[in-house]
Specification:
This protein has three helices and no strands. It has helices spanning about 30-45, 50-55, 60-75.
């Protein structure tokens, strides 16, 4: 079976933030806090699709899963693939 490797998704370039403009989230936050927020917002934007989120973030799915495991262990709610869907029977 011949499989094509996954390629990162390409998104339109965003204009850089003006030098005099400060993003409030960045001020006073640690790199870990900023990374966590980026991961959580990316998961939400990808409707909880971890593979797509990992590609957007430029990390392996294993790294993303480890981060998610760490966040949930600390009681942080992580967007999942069925967050907007009605309860699913197990």
């Amino acid at each position: 079976m011949n499989q094509t490797p996954l390629q990162p998704l390409e998104f339109p370039a965003r204009p850089p933030v003006a030098p005099g403009r400060v993003v409030p989230l960045l001020i006073g936050a640690t790199v870990g806090e900023i990374e966590r927020e980026l991961v959580l917002q990316t998961l939400a934007r990808c409707s909880g699709n971890r593979t797509q989120a990992a590609l957007m973030l430029g990390m392996s799915i294993r790294t993303l899963r480890n981060k998610i495991r760490q966040y949930t262990a600390h009681g942080i709610e992580v967007p999942g693939p069925y967050a907007d869907a009605p309860n699913r029977a197990s």
